[in-house]
Amino acid sequence: MDFKVVFPGGKRVDAEIGGFTIKTDQGVQSGGEGSEPEPFTLFLASMGTCAGIFVLSFCQHRGLDTEGISLSISPEVDPEQRLIGKFRINIIVPDSFPQKYHNALVRSAEQCAVARHVEKAMPNFVTQVLTQSEVE
After folding, report:
1. Is 54 found in the same domain as 21?
2. Within a domain: residue 118?
3. Is 100 inside a domain boundary?
4. Distances in whole angstroms, Cα of residue 67 to Cα of each of 9, 38, 61
5. Which of 6, 13, 79, 133 has its CA 20 to 30 A from that of 20?
6. How far is CA 129 from the centre of its chain?
7. Domain identity same for 33 and 49
8. What is the rounded distance in angstroms from the CA atom of residue 62 to the CA atom of residue 113?
9. For position 28, what pLDDT does the model report?
10. Within the chain, which residues score under 50 in pLDDT?
């Protein structure tokens, strides 16, 4: 699925994909207006929302109430590489949520396609410059 990235002004960079516009901006400390999430924040959010859809689907398929369920994502930085070395995903459930489903919730969240791609595929990135006539 290809998408287009455009520059609407200032430090904003938007992605146009599938009829949607995903807006980003840089924080004030980085010269932006802080009007939208930063791109890296969207990456982190994609991890959580992807795991979340699997947890939600698990509960919905079993008729389990999702009221009070949430996920927290805690990226842990490797001090040597100064990159994220671990993502800790905590699934928070109400005390009344059946214990017998706890491990299954973890297995459900681990089906997240975003996490699996980051963890297993580690794709190579190819960056190049094309002229407008090469694209058409």
Report:
1. no
2. yes
3. yes
4. 40, 29, 15
5. 133
6. 27
7. no
8. 22
9. 96
10. none
CATH number at residue 70: 3.30.300.20
> Is the same domain home to 26 and 48?
no
Q: Are 45 and 37 in contact (CB under 8 A)?
A: yes
DSSP string, 82-130: TEEEEEEEEEE--TTS-GGGHHHHHHHHTT-HHHHIIIII---------
Which tokens go with 54? 């699997």
pLDDT score at 131: 87
Structural domain count of the chain: 2
Q: How far apart (Å, rounded) are the C-alpha atoms in residues 125 and 61? A: 37
Q: Identify the three-state secondary structure at position 48.
A: helix
Containing structural domain, residue 112: 44-124
* Alpha-carbon torsion, ordered 20, 72, 97, 51, to 10 deg: 40
